[in-house]
Amino acid sequence: MKHVEAIVNRICYVRQQITAAMAAPANARKELSTAIVGHKHWDGYSLKEIANRDLHRAAVDAVTDKLVSDLAERKRAEIAALADELDALRNELAIKANEARFDLLDDVREAREWRYVAHD
């Protein structure tokens, strides 16, 4: 039974990893959308007023799109590997659950047929 529990725990962990990987691009886009891209009027230490906000927003959006696209592609490969692992765990769980089912059947039968016998 401990093997079944270990498989279920691993399945839960892999599902959490898949959920986190799927959320990563949206989270990155949200984080990067507030970025400030350096330009020739930026002294590197403190921010001066950005003269052309539209140009700045276009630059931030372009960089964000590129970075998020790259991240999404890496996460797609990661998710595919996790999906393969999840499928293998699902198959293993089915086999172990079937074995446990028959092991438990013996325990149920023994419990139902149990009678106290005094040893003198």
Concise synopsis of the structure shown:
With 120 residues, the protein is an all-alpha fold.
Task: Report on the architecture of this protein.
- This protein has helices spanning 2-32, 53-113.
- Helix 1 runs antiparallel to helix 2 (53-113).
- The protein has 2 helices and no strands.
- The chain is an all-alpha fold.
Q: How many structural domains does the protein architecture include?
A: 1
- Percent of residues in helices comes to over 70%
Summarize the biggest pleated sheet.
Answer: none
Query: In sequence order, what are the helices and strands, one letter per element?
Result: HH
Rg over CA atoms, rounded to whole Å, is 28 Å
Counting H and I runs of at least 4 residues, what is the number of helices? 2
Low-pLDDT stretches are none
User: What's the N-to-C terminus distance?
Assistant: 36 Å
Q: What would you call the shape?
A: rod-shaped
Strand content: under 5%
Mean pLDDT: 85
Number of strands: 0
Structural class by SSE content? mainly alpha
Task: Chart the SSEs and their pairings.
Blueprint: H1 2-32, H2 53-113
Helix pairs in contact: 1-2
Properties at a glance:
120 residues, mainly alpha, 77% helix, rod-shaped
